[in-house]
Amino acid sequence: MGDMNDCFRGKLEKALDKIKIKVTECLNEAQEKKEISPALDVFETSDFIMSSWQGVLLQIKVTRSTIPFNIFDKMIFEVILK
């Protein structure tokens, strides 16, 4: 719907930006605590996580399966943020 209404699109963009900021803050904190690699670019990683999550939500709706979530969870927490 955001592609049909500029006002709605703007509100959606602001909401997603707020979430992305929180994810970035969490990644920064994890780097400071040496819980994740200092080599990760927290801004790019945050963008990747958000984009991946949106794809997962779409796949869950289409497939009516939790498999996309399980793959997302494994890749983010066992591979990327290991």
Unreliable spans: none
* Residue-averaged pLDDT: 94
Structural class: mainly alpha
Number of domains: 1
Q: Count of helical segments?
A: 3
Distance between the termini: 36 Å
Task: Give the biggest beta sheet.
Answer: none
Radius of gyration: 15 Å
- Beta-strand share of residues: under 5%
Spatial shape = flat
Order of helices and strands: HHH
The beta-strand count equals: 0
The share of residues in helices is: over 70%
Report on the structure:
It is a single chain. The chain is mainly alpha-helical and 82 residues long. The chain contains 3 helices and no strands. The longest helix is centred in the first third of the chain and has 27 residues, at 6-32. The N and C termini lie far apart (36 Å). The relative contact order is 0.10.
Compact overview of the structure:
Helix content is 77%, strand content 0%.
Secondary-structure map:
Blueprint: H1 6-32, H2 42-63, H3 67-80
Helix pairs in contact: 1-2, 2-3
Summary keywords:
82 residues; mainly alpha
